[in-house]
């Protein structure tokens, strides 16, 4: 962005670095989302198992 504002030429390496940064950011975001889903699924499964064991115990 700085090169563009200064009027300098943008090299192919600059474009490649920007693309790689975007890919890494997107990958990191996707991994975070997947990790959050795994945690939520585990928590839900644990809660359901606990609830079922309490129901069995109370009977």
Q: Can you characterise this structure?
A:
InterPro entries: DUF4781. Residues 2-55 form the DUF4781 domain. This is DUF4781 domain-containing protein. It holds the Pfam family DUF4781. With 59 residues, the chain is mainly α. 88% of the residues lie in helices and 0% in strands. It is rod-shaped, with a radius of gyration of 24 Å.
Condensed summary:
The chain is an all-alpha fold. The protein contains two helices and no strands.
Helix content: over 70%
The major pleated sheet works out as: none
Question: Could you say which overall geometry the principal axes of the C-alpha atoms support?
Answer: rod-shaped
Q: Into which percentage range does the β-strand content fall?
A: under 5%
> Pairing-aware structural class of the strands and helices?
mainly alpha
So how many helices?
Answer: 2
Radius of gyration: 24 Å
Q: What is the average of the pLDDT values? A: 84
Number of strands: 0
Cα-to-Cα separation, first versus last residue: 67 Å
- Low-confidence segments: none
Order of helices and strands: HH
Domain DUF4781: 2-55
Protein name: DUF4781 domain-containing protein
InterPro entries: DUF4781
